[in-house]
Amino acid sequence: IYVLFPLRGRTVSLLKVVVFLSSTMSEIEEVFKRLQTHKGTKGLIAATSDGVPIRSTMEDGPTHTYCALVQRLVSKCSQSLKELDPTDDLTFLRIRTAKNEIMVAPEANYFLIVVQDNS
């Protein structure tokens, strides 16, 4: 069974989503509670490794944009890292811009995105 996510027009295995939800949602909720208390946190997003948002504190538009772009970035960084050292894995990605700091923690089945105010 596949589910169509209309904002991105992507199909994802429903089984993959169900497995993700059952195994990690309580863990993600704990992380969200802890990170929301940090000063300057603008948004938190959890997404499947395919870039499908599962939980977010941001509006739908920015959530889908961050998920799609960060998923591609994590994929490209992981591939590049494997070319440098095939035995190494990407564990954390931090991007600092003039306005924001975007932190990404990729896991096997999902990734977490934290967007913080840079000031």
How many separate helices? Answer: 2
CATH architectural arrangement: 2-Layer Sandwich
- Determine the CATH superfamily: Dynein light chain 2a, cytoplasmic
**Domain module tally:** 1
* Most strands sheet: 5 strands, antiparallel
- Strand percentage lies at 25-35%
State the CATH topology.
Answer: Beta-Lactamase
CATH class: Alpha Beta
- End-to-end Cα distance, whole Å, is 45 Å
Q: What radius of gyration results from the CA coordinates?
A: 15 Å
Alpha-beta classification: alpha+beta
Helix percent band:
40-55%
Assign an overall shape: globular
Would you count the extended β strands for me?
Answer: 7
Poorly predicted residue ranges:
1-9
Query: Could you report the average pLDDT, rounded to the nearest whole number?
Result: 82
Strand line-up of the largest beta sheet: 4-3-7-6-5
